[in-house]
Design goal:
about 240 residues, alpha/beta, Zincin-like, 2 domains, four-stranded mixed β-sheet
């Protein structure tokens, strides 16, 4: 259930999750979401008052996230937490005892359906990663093609993989991109693609190489710093 309160001129939307298993209420905040996990017996009026009392803290916390180079939260793959997609923290819902494992993504919310009676984090992550790889194949190949035309640096082949410890690579005309890039903001994805496209022409990281990168992505230094932070969260 999604609700809204006002803090000055700012409207703060929040989502409520009620469960009989909880003994206390908890408010979770990130750049994009405010989530209230509370008792089944807690009335909506009581919840609204609790959020209103915390409005200043919530506003300041979200403002801090927005000022950070990256507001992405490292996923835990637990119910009612968040998972990243294209630079946003999206609410994760989990349904058990379904006919098959599947993923639905609607209005920035993931719903993962599992066959089993229990929600194992490794299973949730596997289903999410498989969905992400499917999306990555189409998005990254299409985007690389467009940027290749724009820069005049066209790869002979594009490969999408779940790489460990790096965003991508370029060798012998082939560009390989990490499917986990789909967790990053679109402008960061564009930078990585351009970074690898430039390696098709210049293999090393010489001044000549970085001048070529700057030609096609003038503010690349900002993305380098941002991706250093993202790599610690995502890779």
């Amino acid at each position: 259930m999604t609700n809204k309160i006002k803090f000055g001129s700012t409207v703060i939307p929040y989502t409520i999750f009620k469960t009989k298993r909880r003994k206390t209420s908890q408010i979770s905040v990130d750049k994009d979401n405010v989530v209230v996990r509370t008792l089944l017996t807690k009335s909506n009026g009581e919840i609204k008052q609790m959020i209103q009392n915390k409005a200043k803290w919530i506003f300041e916390k979200q403002d801090q996230f927005r000022k950070q180079k990256s507001g992405i939260v490292k996923p835990t793959f637990s119910k009612d937490t968040t998972v990243p997609y294209l630079g946003k923290n999206c609410i994760l819902k989990i349904n058990l005892e379904q006919k098959k494992n599947s993923v639905k993504f609607i209005n920035s919310q993931f719903t993962i359906n599992l066959v089993g009676k229990r929600s194992f984090k490794r299973e949730v992550q596997k289903v999410y990663d498989e969905w992400l790889t499917t999306k990555a194949t189409k998005y990254l190949e299409t985007r690389t093609g467009k940027l290749g035309v724009k820069t005049g640096l066209k790869p002979s082949k594009i490969t999408i993989k779940g790489l460990k410890g790096r965003w991508g690579s370029a060798s012998r005309g082939t560009i390989t991109l990490n499917s986990n890039l789909m967790k990053c903001p679109k402008d960061a994805i564009d930078y990585i693609i351009i970074h690898e496209l430039c390696h098709l022409k210049i293999k090393d990281h010489s001044h000549r190489y970085w001048n070529l990168v700057r030609k096609h992505y003038p503010k690349y230094e900002e993305k380098v710093k941002e991706l250093e932070i993202l790599s610690r969260i995502i890779l």
